[in-house]
Amino acid sequence: xxxxxxxxxxxxxxxxxxxxxxxxxxxxxxxxxxxxxxxxxxxxxxxxxxxxxxxxxxxxxxxxxxxxxxxxxxxxxxxxxxxxxxxxxxxxxxxxxxxxxxxxxxxxxxxxxxxxxxxxxxxxxxxxxxxxxxxxxxxxxxxxxxxxxxxxxxxxxxxxxxxxxxxxxxxxxxxxxxxxxxxxxxxxxxxxxxxxxxxxxxxxxxxxxxxxxxxxxxxxxxxxxxxxxxxxxxxxxxxxxxxxxxxxxxxxxxxxxxxxxxxxxxxxxxxxxxxxxxxxxxxxxxxxxxxxxxxxxxxxxxxxxxxxxxxxxxxxxxxxxxxxxxxxxxxxxxxxxxxxxxxxxxxx
Length: 348
What we know:
Layout: H1 30-37, E1 42-49, E2 52-59, H2 68-71, H3 79-86, E3 92-95, E4 101-102, E5 105-106, H4 108-117, E6 124-126, H5 129-139, E7 143-144, H6 147-158, H7 160-163, H8 173-176, H9 181-190, H10 204-221, H11 224-230, H12 247-258, H13 263-269, H14 275-288, H15 294-338
């Protein structure tokens, strides 16, 4: 009995209130990304040379992709690749004297060049944060500046001799001290242990060798989804734990299942699979061989084997080039230290 003679009803406690619903984050599509940049994703790049500015067009969608920091530099590994992929040429070049950015404004010449070339709604990528602020404030043009844009600027500097053959190519200390982050990832992955590749050591041969390794990785990794999908049944096979296998090992296992009687395939497989694993795959091949498209599997396997072979040779070349660059760099530094210090005396 409660107070006032009323009985309390015994029963279950009311359920807790449901958790607040958070709106789902909208996943941006390629169309959304293109619309954010204008002109279907085609941006304009304002590139600074030692004596002026040039304008280029570039596929801005590449700058917004998840792996942009790893990939963008490869578009500028050599002049033939850059021209073939984009027809990338300076649409306009302006020699600027005096400085085009001063007192928080943009010179009339540079402003006219940008307005003449730029399409309505097009985003402008610039190499310095202060340039972005000044152009946005004075010309009301949306600008893009971030670490990925700096990869584009590095690439254009790498090809400056190609795009501006008559230009004074003397770069500033700031220019020579920069290195592409994407290039650095490749050098860290495949470079020599114990040798740090400094920006001053980078030359066109090293860039090309690193690009070859990048392309080998691409040839292998582009097949990842197909191989993972085709291998979904491997977990049913006893004594086969394929979850931590690399793509070469996975492609080899699938080839054994598709062609269990091919002696050459089994011989090559011994380089990455144990004899026990090969025997188990051959034993269970009749159960699963018909579930795999043999033609595409064979094509992927051959491409990966080819890429891994090229990668081995490319690593040897890269290591040789790094050793040469290190020796040349150390020799140059030693010469600088040997130069006598010039002391000026003020004569009263």
